[in-house]
Amino acid sequence: MLLKSFIFALAVFSISADVCQQIPDSQIYDLSTFFLPTPDIYFGTLPANFNCTYKIKAPANSTYGFSAHVLVDNGLKGANDYAVITDVDGSKTTMTSRAAGPPIRYNVVPGAYITVQIVTKSVLMNSKFKVKVDYHQAKMGPVNQMKTGGEMNFFDLGKLSDGYHYFNTVTFIGTEQIFAYLTDFKDEDFMGCWDCFVMDGTIENHVKIYRTAEIYQYNFLSTTNAITVFSTTGKPFKFTLNPLSEARQFEWDSYYLLDSLRIDSAIEMFSNPQLRATQVVNFDTTGITMAHLAITSDVCKKAVIVSGPPNNSSQLLMDLTTNPEMPHHFDLQYFTVIHQDCTLGFMVY
Ligand SMILES: *[C@@H]1O[C@H](CO)[C@@H](O)[C@H](O)[C@H]1NC(C)=O
Ligand SMILES: *[C@@H]1O[C@H](CO)[C@@H](O)[C@H](O)[C@H]1NC(C)=O
Ligand SMILES: *[C@@H]1O[C@H](CO)[C@@H](O)[C@H](O)[C@H]1NC(C)=O
Ligand SMILES: CC(=O)N[C@H]1CO[C@H](CO)[C@@H](O)[C@@H]1O
Fold first, then answer.
1. Among 86, 121, 131, 324, which is least packed by CB within 10 angstroms?
2. How many CB atoms lie under 10 A from the CB of residue 249?
3. Is 246 helix (H, G, I), strand (E, B) or coil?
């Protein structure tokens, strides 16, 4: 009898010691599922004085890793019970009994984590709080060195979509900070992409993660010499990149994607005392035709097309102030329009 109650006491002790148990790394594999808190609490109610913080990781390196898909179901009842979810970008959401609603999903990109802290007060209120975590093996994308000189750096994450892996990703590493020009925010696909992220750094070594839907300007400057970009599969998420020394000479208008422009849509650039640059990229193939060029300001200090990115190894292709013959076909995949104190418009296709 004594032995029996001793064993019982041990069992109780081991359950209560384990309530805050984290997901063991060894248990993370493709299609594995976890319930937090421990399954007995997940399917029951939270004890009083509960206070656990779960770190839900999506472990990864540049060649191998997982995404985590977390479903948070708030069934808190006690007026003083709460949960705090810290997202991959560091933003915090507090959930209480007053904020009940349908379960909320968090998708954790490879290399990142979220935390979920669940707190109940001393009175047992039959609160529930369920966190279900599903792991999926990720397809880790390419790691590219930034090209230098006359070559432009650009990428379309949508081209990596395989319809199965949740995220597509690519990393660029350079020798200085990287200026990335993300898809024009007028693009609804982009604005609607809650699960598109920019990581300042590499998968293994980064300082911060941003949700692109919450970057209110559409350019991004890394603080490290690398950036990693993620998109949800199926999103045509396109961007160009420039080393900071190249980018900082200009104010950036935007860049244009041939396949996202309607055939009759015009590009307009407004007069500005700053030197401005616009990178035009055909993301699909070689060949850009320019037509209907019009300079509409009385003064036009500068309006030129240079090859590649606006680098001093790029070459002057056309001076737009000399009334060049239009349409003009460039047998190129990309070029840059540089202008200053000049309002101009044209079409590309
Ligand atoms: C919960 O635990 C954390 C970490 O141990 C502690 O810092 C915090 O004060 C606790 N909160 C409550 C409400 O007990
Ligand atoms: C990534 O992790 C896997 C599994 O741990 C390992 O086999 C592989 O060598 C790692 N790759 C790199 C580039 O570190
Ligand atoms: C061209 O490149 C050289 C060498 O990197 C640099 O010193 C110079 O400032 C650059 N010129 C311009 C106009 O950017
Ligand atoms: C201004 C600028 O970015 N210049 C760069 C152009 O490309 C060459 C060759 O890669 C670099 O050395 C320059 O720094």
1. 324
2. 14
3. helix
100 token code pair: 């009940």
pLDDT tens-digit series, residues 83-130: 999 999 999 999 999 877 899 999 999 999 999 999 999 888 889 999
What is the secondary structure of 232-251 as a DSSP string?
A: ETT---EEEEEEHHHHTTSE
Instruction: Report the atom number in ligand 1 closest to the C-alpha of 49.
Output: 14
Residue 326 belongs to domain spanning: 259-349
Whether the CB of 311 sits within 6 Å of ligand 4: yes
User: What is the Cα–Cα distance from 333 to 143, expressed in whole angstroms?
Assistant: 22
From 246, 307, 336, the mutation candidate for ligand 4 (largest count of ligand atoms within 8 A of CB) is: 246
Claim to verify: residue 76 and residue 126 sit in the same structural domain: yes
| Same structural domain, 12 and 131 | yes
Closest CA to 191 of 231, 159, 163: 231
Q: Quote the CA–CA distance of 99 and 121 in Å, as a whole number.
A: 17
- Rounded to the nearest 5 degrees, what angle is found at the Cα of 148, between the Cα atoms of 142 and 154? 45
276-281 and 251-257 as β-strands: parallel, antiparallel, unpaired? parallel
Q: How many residues can be counted in the chain?
A: 349
Query: Does 179 sit in the ligand 4 pocket, CB within 6 Å?
Result: no
The CATH number linked to 245 is 2.60.120
Quick count: other Cβ atoms within 10 Å of Cβ 37?
Answer: 22
Atom of ligand 1 at shortest distance to CA of 121? 13
Whether 314 is in the pocket of ligand 4, judged by its Cβ within 6 Å, is no
pTM: 0.87
Q: How far is CA 20 from the centre of its chain?
A: 30
